[in-house]
Write a structure and sequence with these properties.
It is a single chain. By secondary structure, this protein is mostly helical. The chain has one domain. The radius of gyration is 15 Å and the shape is globular.
Length: about 80
């Protein structure tokens, strides 16, 4: 018997188990837009430590690709 986990999100009624391998997830993250990814993960997991100061985009650079984050910041965020 499987358990269904519910969330408070108005958009998702139940959370399904992740079946992808770590390598598959890493490949998905290679193309992910980092600035919205971190707050979404923090919200979904409740882990606000993901919202590190060194990974916050400069508000004046948000219109740039990846919110102006450099390659090192992007790599750190994807870890």
């Amino acid at each position: 018997m499987s358990q269904t986990v519910f969330t408070s999100s108005p958009f998702v009624a139940a959370i399904e188990a992740i079946t992808e391998s770590d390598d598959e997830i890493r490949r998905f993250l290679e193309d992910a837009e980092v600035p919205p990814l971190l707050p979404a993960l923090a919200y979904a997991t409740g882990d606000t430590s993901l919202l590190r100061d060194d990974l916050r985009p400069n508000p004046l650079m948000l219109a740039l690709p990846q919110g102006g984050l450099d390659a090192d910041q992007q790599a750190a965020a994807r870890q």
